[in-house]
Specification:
- The chain has 405 residues and is an alpha/beta fold.
- The protein has one domain: TIM Barrel (Alpha-Beta Barrel), CATH 3.20.20.100.
- It is built from 13 helices and twelve strands.
- The strands form three sheets. The chain has an eight-stranded parallel β-barrel, surrounded by four helices. A two-stranded antiparallel sheet has the order 1-2.
- Helix 1 links the parallel strand 3 and strand 4.
Length: 405
């Protein structure tokens, strides 16, 4: 297998078509397990490692401490660099600064030792600088390859919500303008602490606003956008794709291409295609696990959505599960697993730079990477046009079934 790499926007960053997600490191996965997966991913040609200052998640887990995942990656990097001094230069390490939140524990963990009071989180210059400094310290690196704004300061319908609501915008507490955030990111670039920056969970309007601000300020535009994208959440195609297509637009880094594990098909009953809505695995990993027997999925007690039933439950709503059953039939007709269909479809999209897939074991990681065997000399993934048409026909009936008003 050739692990192809894709250039991000106007940057000099080339990211592997498979990006290793890390949000399970520190809660769902131990440090030892994380080290094993990082080792394996690199051995398979993965160079893009994605994390965030708020990881691991969900924050509802009593073990949650923001920054834990970055510390684990930092210790792995220090350990492996002792024997391989060139490792750091071959990697693209991406992390994120959180967007607006009316109250959060994360900002106080930007200092060592942490503060004692939760505060609102904003994307003002001081907060961006503090977040970057904390990430650099925890990762044990001199520079961050890609620093991303995790979600906007301003109100946008996000994380499954759709339809802009002016009254919600008026009540929103985000007050920092994009130009201030951009100025802070540009200062970090000028200081050599950040090579490039990107945005995440953004809209088409947001992409254009960032690019316009960058042009007005005479700095580089964002080189990536990290949004949710999968067979059951194609909202990127409602304008963000057009924004990506303009000039040297940002490359898409797709998070949750398996819709939190739902698109492995492991919640679909074997008898009638109806879903077992009892839980789910938001790690976005695995190749489907054991086949369901009489609608019961082996190991369901370990799945993330079973352990955290309130977390990202949009992926488990009836219409999303019904759409998943249709996609599974398409996969079966093509002689492949639903996981393979979902990953290859996402990877084959013209605007895709890298799909970010988490895993909770080396076996899951290996299966996911195998599913992305390249069809072209550069490692590009293609999908049979007939399969694409069949998928689009389902999409026209089940258009973004995870969405809510």
């Amino acid at each position: 297998m050739v692990m192809g790499k894709v250039k991000l926007g106007v940057s000099d960053l080339y990211v592997s078509r498979y990006g290793l997600g890390s949000m399970t490191f520190g809660i769902q996965n131990t440090e030892e397990e994380a080290f094993e997966m990082l080792d394996y991913a690199v051995s398979r040609g993965v160079n893009f490692i994605d994390t965030a200052e708020v990881y691991p998640i969900p924050a509802s887990d009593p073990r949650w401490v923001p920054g834990t995942t970055e510390r684990i990656i930092g210790r792995w990097l220090a350990s492996r660099s002792a024997a391989d001094p060139g490792l750091r230069s071959r990697l693209v390490i991406a992390t994120k600064v959180m967007g607006y939140s009316p109250s959060s524990e994360t900002p106080r963990h930007r200092t060592d030792p942490p503060g004692t009071q939760d505060t609102p989180a904003h994307l003002d210059a001081a907060s961006v600088a503090a977040a970057a400094a904390a990430s650099l310290r925890r990762l044990g690196v001199d520079y961050i390859d890609l620093l991303q704004v995790h979600w906007p300061e301003r109100y946008v319908p996000n994380f499954g919500a759709t339809g802009y609501q002016p009254d919600r915008a008026a009540a929103h507490g985000g007050t920092v303008e994009i130009k201030e955030t951009l100025g802070a990111l540009a200062a970090l670039q000028e200081a050599g602490k950040v090579r490039w920056y990107g945005i995440s969970n953004e809209t088409a309007v947001g992409v254009c606003t960032w690019e316009t601000a960058a042009e007005q300020m005479g700095v580089a535009p964002p080189v990536s956008i990290q949004n949710s994208y999968s067979l059951i959440h194609r909202e990127v195609e409602n304008g963000v794709d057009e924004a990506i297509a303009r000039g040297s637009g940002p490359g898409l880094l797709a998070w949750s291409p398996l819709a939190g594990g739902v698109l492995t098909g492991k919640y679909l009953g074997s008898d009638n295609g109806e879903a077992d809505a009892s839980g789910g695995d938001d790690s976005g990993s695995g190749s489907g696990g054991a086949p369901p027997v009489d609608g019961v999925v082996a190991g369901v007690g370990t799945y993330r959505f079973k352990a955290y039933p309130r977390f990202q439950k949009r992926f488990m709503v009836p219409r999303a599960l019904e759409a998943t059953a249709h996609y599974q039939k398409i996969a079966q007709g093509a002689g492949m697993s639903l996981t393979r269909l979902a990953l290859r479809w996402a990877a084959s999209r013209w605007f895709m730079a890298s799909i970010i897939v988490g895993a909770t074991s080396v076996a899951q990681l290996a299966a996911n990477i195998d599913d992305l065997d390249g069809d072209e000399p550069d490692g590009a993934v293609t999908l049979d046009p007939a399969l694409s048409r069949a998928i689009d026909e389902v999409y026209l009936v089940f258009r973004d079934p995870v969405a809510s008003i």
